[in-house]
Design goal:
The protein is α+β, with helices and mostly antiparallel strands. The protein has 6 helices and 5 strands; from the N terminus they run αβαβααβαββα. The longest helix has 20 residues, at 13-32. The two termini are 28 Å apart.
Amino acid sequence: RHDYPALPDRRSPSAREAAWSSYLGVLEHFQAAGKRTVLVLSAPELPAPMDYMMRRTPDSEGRIAGVSRDWWEARRAWLMARLDEVPRGVIIVDPTGLFCDAATCYAAEGETGLYFDQNHASIYGMDRIAEAIIAAAPPGREETGRAPTGE
């Protein structure tokens, strides 16, 4: 169920904290095991199913708008405020800048969809994310650090 443009809290604060604590524990476990760990944040969601979005009229640059950048930033504000809790050494890749400009997050560019449903990237969208992961954590590079790609 998608509630765009509402931003409902589906979890209680205690449930959200428990899930976050568990998530951090998994990242800490990987780090303690000496694994190079990359945390890829969520790509922006869409306001409607992709088959509906593709029926929209593209802008002058051939892009189909999804949600506003302001909506997306509000949607993920809780997470962004907590990223400093992510264990040191975890590489963070934020695909927001790959899907959004300063004002709009896009569903498609030209006739190529960035998503295959409301909140999962298409192969084309995933190619962008994969390139960002490789740039942030190239194969063979041992050192780790923070490498957000969002603006």
